[in-house]
Amino acid sequence: MSKPSVIEVAGKAVAVAAPAGEQVRFVAVKYDVWDLDGELYSSVDEAKRAAARHLANRGAVGQPFSPTGFPTDLAVAV
Fold it and tell me: What residue spans of the chain are helical by DSSP H?
């Protein structure tokens, strides 16, 4: 793999698979897949399957964010 690839689940971009030697590094761009950020996979397809499984386990497939919304512990008061 020579350049990053977008990882989409249910038609929504959730991450980027970035080259990391012979593997790809999962770079999360949506909070719902943050738990996978930095993980290494053997292929882009494996990273896509991991994202789909993760979202399915959270019940978030087809939703832009988790049902509980943005975590309040990360919110900044203005």
Answer: 44-58
Q: How many domains does the chain have?
A: 1
Question: Which residues, in sequence order, are CB contacts of 21 under 8 Å at separation 6+?
Answer: none
Beta carbons within 8 Å of 25's beta carbon, 6+ residues apart:
17, 18, 19, 38, 39, 40
- Residues 61-78 have a mean pLDDT of 52
Tokens of 9: 């689940």
Structural domain contains residue 77: no
> Which position has the higher pLDDT, 46 or 58?
46
pTM (predicted TM-score): 0.73
Lateral strand order in the sheet of 40-41: 5-9, 12-20, 23-28, 40-41
**Cα distance between residue 12 and residue 49, in whole Å:** 14
